[in-house]
Amino acid sequence: MITETVYLERDNAIDLQLLADGAVVSLASVNRMEVTAANGDWAVSSTEAADVFDWSAGNGKVTIALGLQDIPPGRHSCRLVVFDQSNQNGIVWDELKLLVKE
């Protein structure tokens, strides 16, 4: 499981490369992403916060900038969920551990 640090009120970003069976995936058909707390306390979606997520670089790369979002400080288990036309309910792509610091 991946552990990432988020610094609130800062521009630090999380860079991920999405793989399926060890191969880089195309994100060309992706129309939405979200990071959700496993306990349901909070969620950040590209629908409401488009500037948080960037998957336009290609090569399966996703940049997620959560520092300006309303996430409480502390340790959080969360999921990265990816949506496209074929998967309108989303695919849980990865589980993340976030350490959110002020």
Polypeptide structure, described:
The strands form three sheets. A five-stranded mixed sheet has the order 1-10-9-5-6, with no helix packed on it. The protein has a three-stranded antiparallel sheet with strand order 2-8-7, with no helix packed on it. A two-stranded antiparallel sheet has the order 3-4. A hairpin with a 6-residue loop joins strand 7 and strand 8. With 102 residues, it is mostly beta strands. The relative contact order is 0.33. The mean pLDDT is 96. It is built from no helices and ten strands. It is globular, with a radius of gyration of 13 Å. 0% of the residues lie in helices and 56% in strands. The protein has strands at residues 2-7, 14-17, 19-20, 23-24, 30-37, 43-45, 53-54, 61-64, 74-84, 87-101.
- The strand order across the widest sheet is 1-10-9-5-6
**How far apart are the termini?**
23 Å
Number of strand elements? 10
**Whole-number mean pLDDT:** 96
Number of helices: 0
The profile of the biggest β sheet is: 5 strands, mixed
What class do helices, strands and sheet pairing give?
mainly beta
* Beta content: over 45%
Please provide the ordered H/E string of secondary-structure elements: EEEEEEEEEE
Low-pLDDT stretches: none
Residue share in helices?
Answer: under 10%
Radius of gyration: 13 Å
Overall geometric form: globular
